[in-house]
Amino acid sequence: MSATIIDGKAIAAATQLEIKARVSALATRGIHPGLAVILIGDNPASHVYVSNKVKSCGAVGMHSVLEQYPVDLTEAELLTRIDALNNDPAIHGILVQLPLPKYIDEHAVLEAISPEKDVDGFHLINAGALMTGQPRLRACTPYGVMKMLEHSHIPLRGAHAVIVGASNIVGKPMAMMLLQAGATVTLCNSKTRDLSHHTRQADIVIAAVGRAKMITGDMIRAGATVIDVGINRDEHGKLCGDVDFDSVAQVAGAISPVPGGVGPMTITMLLMNTLEAAEKL
Ligand SMILES: Nc1nc2c(c(=O)[nH]1)N[C@@H](CN(C=O)c1ccc(C(=O)N[C@@H](CCC(=O)O)C(=O)O)cc1)CN2
């Protein structure tokens, strides 16, 4: 293996120390950042993620509330809860864990969260602010990737970044953040012809497509930086990313692993957004 490992766990730990210090500073102004997490249904992975979010709040000295509802909660009931949290002065950040049950309109729910408390950065106002170069609250996963690149001193200005996956949560906001940092961005999707033609030209590849190990070493230019956003299970049921780590690590200059890469940064940037929302008071 020749690639340097971009250790998301270590970067997350360092960033959480900074957040903790800023939380203490806010306490001197009588402000205690608070996060409300809403979880609907019994998706086991979602349960793990929300419990890690709540634990991480405690670790940096933030207040959190976890509201868990059965899968038959109606959309109207959910909107009523969001409205109450929008008006709760002890709550600075609200997130509704995705995916939602199919019968609930995700867009309606995300737009119901006050943009000032939208610590996932998914509200149209926050997505639009990012798009027009005036970022407010930013989507946590791409925000975390930007921190990882910054921490690893990967040059972005003038670099060619290829993103594989164009979701609202990762691919699209990632493209906007990289563009704003001066990168030339290619945004690929599931219908892109000859994907490796694009990835082989990249200085930076961001894999966010949701297919286990689909980015292989032959698709990567020697020395490129590869960030793996995927969370999948391989044929043995083991957690893996969208990147075939073993073959890509032979050619890449730097690579983030799964687990221990982008995942811990997603949670850390949620804390950062909650802090930033509270600091604006
Ligand atoms: N409202 C939201 N829903 C979802 C988001 C989101 O940002 N906001 N993202 C994903 C899930 N997610 C956070 O919610 C998330 C996924 C994975 C991790 C993580 O730390 N993964 C670990 C491995 C964990 C494991 O063992 O399963 C790692 O990569 O090291 C954190 C957060 C969808 N929903």
Automatic annotation (TrEMBL):
PANTHER family: C-1-TETRAHYDROFOLATE SYNTHASE, CYTOPLASMIC, C-1-TETRAHYDROFOLATE SYNTHASE, CYTOPLASMIC-RELATED. It catalyses: (6R)-5,10-methenyltetrahydrofolate + H2O = (6R)-10-formyltetrahydrofolate + H(+); (6R)-5,10-methylene-5,6,7,8-tetrahydrofolate + NADP(+) = (6R)-5,10-methenyltetrahydrofolate + NADPH. Its EC number is 1.5.1.5, 3.5.4.9. InterPro entries: Aminoacid_DH-like_N_sf (IPR046346), NAD(P)-bd_dom_sf (IPR036291), THF_DH/CycHdrlase (IPR000672), THF_DH/CycHdrlase_cat_dom (IPR020630), THF_DH/CycHdrlase_CS (IPR020867), THF_DH/CycHdrlase_NAD-bd_dom (IPR020631). Homodimer. Pathway: One-carbon metabolism; tetrahydrofolate interconversion. One of its GO terms (molecular function) is methylenetetrahydrofolate dehydrogenase (NADP+) activity. Belongs to the tetrahydrofolate dehydrogenase/cyclohydrolase family. Catalyzes the oxidation of 5,10-methylenetetrahydrofolate to 5,10-methenyltetrahydrofolate and then the hydrolysis of 5,10-methenyltetrahydrofolate to 10-formyltetrahydrofolate. NADP(+) binds at G165, A166, S167, I231. One of its GO terms (cellular component) is cytosol. Residues 139-280 form the Tetrahydrofolate dehydrogenase/cyclohydrolase NAD(P)-binding domain. Residues 6-120 form the Tetrahydrofolate dehydrogenase/cyclohydrolase catalytic domain. It comes from the Bacteria. HAMAP family: THF_DHG_CYH (MF_01576). Keywords: Amino-acid biosynthesis, Histidine biosynthesis, Hydrolase, Methionine biosynthesis, Multifunctional enzyme, NADP, One-carbon metabolism, Oxidoreductase, Purine biosynthesis. This is Bifunctional protein FolD. SUPFAM superfamilies: Aminoacid dehydrogenase-like, N-terminal domain (SSF53223), NAD(P)-binding Rossmann-fold domains (SSF51735). GO terms for biological process: L-histidine biosynthetic process; methionine biosynthetic process; purine nucleotide biosynthetic process; tetrahydrofolate interconversion.
